[in-house]
Amino acid sequence: MEGAKGAFLRLYGEDYGYPNSPKNIDQIRALEFKRLEGTVYLDHAGATLYSEAQMEAVAKDLTSNIYGNPHSQSESSMAASEMIRAAREQVLEFCNASSKDYRCVFTSGATSSLKLVGEIFPWSKESCYMYTTENHNSVLGIREYALEKGAGALAVDVKMPESHTDTSGSCNFTLDISLHKEQRRFNEFGSFSDIASENSCHHLFAFPSECNFSGTKYQLELANLVKKDMGKVLKGSGHYRYSRGHWMVLIDAAKGCATQPPDLSKFPADFIVLSFYKIFGYPTGLGALIVRNDAARLLKKNYFSGGTVSASIADIDFVKRRESIEQLLEDGTVSFLSIASIKHGFQIINRLTISAISRHTRSLASYVRNTMEKLRHENGPYLCEIYGSSCDELGPMISFNLRRLDGLWFGYREVEKLASLSGIQLRTGCFCNPGACAKYLGLSHSELLSNIEDGHVCWDDHDILNGKPTGAIRISFGYMSTFEDAELFLQFTKTNFLSKTSGKFRKIIEKNHDNDNSERMLITQIPFLKSIFLYPIKSCSGFSVECWPLHDNGLLYDREWLLRSSSGEILTQKKVPEMIQVLTFIDLRQQVLLLESPNCQIKLQISLQSHGFVNEELVLYGQRYEVEGYSADVNAWFSKAIGRNCSLLRCCSTKDNSIRESSSCRVENRKLNFANQAQLLLISTDSLSDLNIRLKSDEDELKRSGKTMCVDSSRFRPNLVVSAVGEPYAEDGWQSLKIGKTCFTSLGGCNRCQIINLDPWNAHAEKSNEPLATLASFRRVKGKILFGILLRYEKQTTKDLNQEKEEETWVEVGQKINVLSYNN
Fold it and tell me: Looking at 432, 540, 646, 750, which residue is catalytic?
């Protein structure tokens, strides 16, 4: 890495690392971000990080001063009022805005600021809300207010000029704007029939200072052009009527202000929104709306609260509002202790200077972008598809997708999962910017609607649909990012995604090349069923048995129950590791489910014969279940066992649920309880032994903890464990098999997630990336990390007097495995 850093510094040494500041970047990281050791944090566009020095200053301030409710005249209240006044000035100064022209209104965040503008803007049927397609959902949401008031809405694509020399704020530069179809909720148009309506009509144009998807920086001269000469923009567009009236401009600076706040002395927009946690990490839940004084006078807010009025009378329609813009627009008491914190964040920024932060972060982004653009697979195709034109000025972020050797895409969820295992925190998805996402990914309206109909929503795992990505991967740099962060990310990308001959997935079944080249190699050992495991309650502990009956849904009673939180969330070990401490056992003779927990003094028994009380419908994994609940006493026992309020539910009907075959996505008419993917999961001891050999050779783990890891089958929560399959991962090639006399069909490999990194015997064990990280190094297939196979039970029936008679079927430890067919 030292050689690479030397080359980097020769190119970017003047911009990187704050050479003229009291502390350079290495000192800042060592002294103020010790918690980042072992972590590469690359989601500063989502939320940057606060420094330890900043939080120490906040704590000292709040423990040394008394800030009371500012809506009073006490000494502590006056101290809070003065602190808030100074904070408003500091925010205006950050954007080079004069207090003669602007006011700073504190809100709960950038989204709240945008919502406030939409709610109280003077919309009319003659109004137009125009916005760039590359905008955050929070900006698009203003459209709802405009359309409900009868106004029109227009999305526009803006192509910024490649170069310009005018820095005075005049409108001498040209701009390429293409308008989309006008949206209008009601078929009523304003007529501009007289001068009065023309002069009283107001329009709003919204754009980001920096796109949070592509990183494209919009030239702020756009604000001046819209305000002074909208006729030039709309001429010949069919919407020239909107050139009449008054155009106002909103700039979403939530992303861009971290490295380049808008200069409002040159580009006097009417509304500017900021988010403080994106500038210096803390506080969250606090934003600002900077509003021009003349624009504020047009805003009409109906609601009033404590601090927004001078007087009101309870039993008659009388209220006298305050004249201060801030008090008129803020709802009641502002978050004054959070406001007290922002000066300490600004001190960090001012000490480094915003220009130095911009140069520092830009140097890292340029280095990574230039390196990624050159990455190629062995046979020549480029690895990275990077979004955002290099002709435009770009912010310190990179959005991209990765292509496989064959030209198909790596799923962004696969990239995110592997990055997390490597200690790299990045962002994936659409970043709440649907317009930019559709534009750069080339998704048409029909494709977007088709994806939605297929069940795709924000934050789900549908990262590739119909051969196209549904989102992207984004990395972004902050003022405390280092060259080492950038280089570790590049090494991660090369190691995990560039094709290498040695990285090909190992063969799982060898063919016996006899005369017709069609027979499989004979296996000298006969595979047999070694263990059977049952997990009655989803994500709780299971138990082993020597034999067990099969049912329509797989093993009888397997994953027939689950726990649901008081908010309706289905609980799993991923979020509630304590669930593994709930021990379960089923006594078939007594027909009871037995439960115990170290957190409960008494054991619990639940009858298998009598169901609970409340019938309801539950949707899980896109399937509908009829479920029944249990008594308050039962729910109280589980709540105590796992340390949070929850209720127990039992699946009582699965007639509408089916298995989705992983290889072809073909829906099969087989029932499921609450299992994630299939009725049964099978692993082999041969594969487990191979994995443990690899784990024992992990030198990094040995250095970190002084010991190597060894895992048993419980990590993978299998139903069936088989031995003597011939070689590790031979089960991957099975298509159909018999265990004893019972037939099963393989539905493909089981895709693994971070839950296998949890120690099943210790819910509070130190977090680890193993064994998933090791599996990812050699068991990745088309975006999945595979271990074990999913099985479907093929229920047998016999003909008896023209009636189908079901046979009771059991699986038993020691039964032989007969592989009936193999995958091609």
Answer: 432
